[in-house]
Amino acid sequence: MTYEDTDTLIIGGGVIGLSIAWHLSRENQAVTMIDSAEPGQSSRAAAGMLAPLAEARGPGPFLDLALESLRRYPDFVEALNEESGLDLEICGPGMLRVARTAEEESALGEAFEWQAKLGLPLCRLTGEEVRRLEPDTAARVRAALLSPAERHIEPRLLLAGLTSACRNRGVRFVSGSVTDMEMTSERVIAAQTNSDRFPCQTLVIAGGAWSKFWGQILGVSVPIQPLRGQILALGPCQPILLRHTLYTHGAYLVPRSDGRIVAGATEESVGFETQTTAYGMASLRANAEELIPALSNWPLQSAWTGLRPLSVDGLPLLGRVPRWGNIHIAAGHGRNGILLAPVTAALMADSILHDAKLPEAFDPARFGGRL
Ligand code: GLY
Q: Does 219 reside within a domain?
């Protein structure tokens, strides 16, 4: 196969790289994607929550971006279904953000005060009201915020849909690692793997937790570190114990349509280490049983880890890489890569195709220019 005609070469085939590839290919760009893993592999660990409010640290550009992406999700999924032939859906009746202690209840009250004004439906529930909706919730759950718009998606289906839609649009997937770049002082001309040379007009770095290595090669500060999340799935068992996602400080439970319940997730700065640990598994299980005691009878179905790409200021890097004429980056989405995929793809297409200036908060130049 010849790659001479590549308009955009994307390094990194996680949910962000795939979404950008799909978006650009729908704009008639010839896209090639390189990843050492299968397309989508690096994002398969996600729980799939579409939860801007639950994950928000406060008002600001990150929350605005997340709300915009949530707003785009129904159209994104509809178009993906049309182009992939799959039947993805946004699942569940929404989220219950629960409080187990007086302190957590007071934090929920404060969150409600500012989040209720943001346009998503949100209401306060007592513990009894929570148990009317979800009867298996533990007695110690004393209050909750019910957020019907914060639903979830099955990441593995989403990634399969994106891969298939990309293939149908002619995106070429290359399995390999980029070992070298051919560059002038301001532009990248081609990337080299062990087996091939990949010329391109534009390069996009969408390498998740590995993006900082590309920064080093390009002489640009890309301060992104991996933050390991361990996660496990219980069941499937009958009866169904949960319909809403339960979310609380340090733990969440996401019910899957096949009857399993996914329990996440740890946050650990352990570099690129991807093993699960006995301690991690025990704490996830304890948190799950603290929210739904009947889960103590459910068997462990599987366990895995993911590496969240966390930037030093918690905001993604989106747009043109400083002082490189044809290199762009979309990385550092932290805990919210799945949620942020639709808006990231649209913004990056604007930056790449129309040279649009993206919101300053996400400017990759904020960490300094070229070193
Ligand atoms: N968004 C959930 C997590 O990163 O664990």
A: yes
Mean pLDDT score of the chain:
96
Indicate which atom in ligand 1 lies nearest the CA of residue 231: 5
**Does the C-beta of 335 come closer than 6 Å to ligand 1?**
yes
| pLDDT of 370 over the 80 cut | no
Which of 132-170 are b and which e, b meaning 16 or more Cβ less than 10 Å from the residue's Cβ?
eebeebbeebbbbbbbebbbbbbbebbbbbbbbbbbebe
Counting residues of the chain whose pLDDT is more than 90, the rounded percentage is 93
pTM: 0.97
Residue 228 near ligand 1, beta carbon < 6 Å:
no
> Tokens 């178009």 belong to which residue?
79
Answer whether 229 contacts ligand 1 (Cβ < 6 A).
yes
The encoded tokens of residue 123 equal: 């209401």
Residue whose C-alpha is closest to residue 213's, from 181, 237, 243, 189: 181
Condensed to tens digits (0 to 9), the pLDDT of residues 107-128 reads 999 999 999 999 999 999 999 9
Q: What is the mean pLDDT of residues 67-76?
A: 98
Q: Which atom of ligand 1 is nearest to the CA of 334?
A: 4
**Angle in degrees, CA 209, 265, 303, rounded to 5:** 90
Strand 188-193 to 178-183 pairing? antiparallel
Nearest protein Cα to ligand 1, atom 5? 265
* 240 and 292 housed in the same domain: yes
**What is the model's pLDDT at position 281?**
98
Residue 341's nearest CA partner among 108, 170, 153 is: 153
Structural domain for 242, as ranges? 92-150+225-309
pLDDT at 238 over 90: no
CA-nearest residue, atom 2 of ligand 1: 335
CATH number at residue 233: 3.30.9.10
- CB-count burial class (<10 Å; 0-12, 13-18, 19+) for 82: exposed
**The pLDDT of residue 371:** 56
Nearest atom, ligand 1, residue 47 CA: 2
Q: Is 47 in the pocket of ligand 1 (CB under 6 A)?
A: yes
Let me know whether 200 and 253 are in one domain.
no
Helices first, then strands: H and E counts in the chain: 8, 17
336 lies in the same domain as 285:
no
